[in-house]
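User: Can you help me understand a structure? I only have the sequence.
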Amino acid sequence: GAGRGGTRAPRSACVPWRSGMTGADILGAKFDVVYGQPTPAGNYAGMVVQINGVPTDPNPHTAYWAYFYNTGSGWQYSGSGALSTHPQPGTVQGWLDLPGRSAQIGD
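Assistant: Let's start by predicting it. Here is the structure, written out as tokens:
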């Protein structure tokens, strides 16, 4: 995967599944996560704006981490977000840093 500031090797982790887990629970079990907040310029609450320090200066107005899940036949963008997604055991979740893009909640 590519992160701002250069090419970064993809990182992966297995997380023990439990009933009721969200995609955000899975991500937060192995990685340091920073979420956006409501601002006068827009509501970025719940958006993942930084994972393990990338980007170093998160700005939800210009970039965000997109959330994907593997369907078994390919990757699917999750428009509902990790806080409201409840992955099943054995599924694969993915995150992609999208610099230069904004995805304000409610758009």
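Now, to help you interpret it: The longest strand covers residues 63-70. The longest helix spans residues 23-30. Let me know which part you'd like to focus on.
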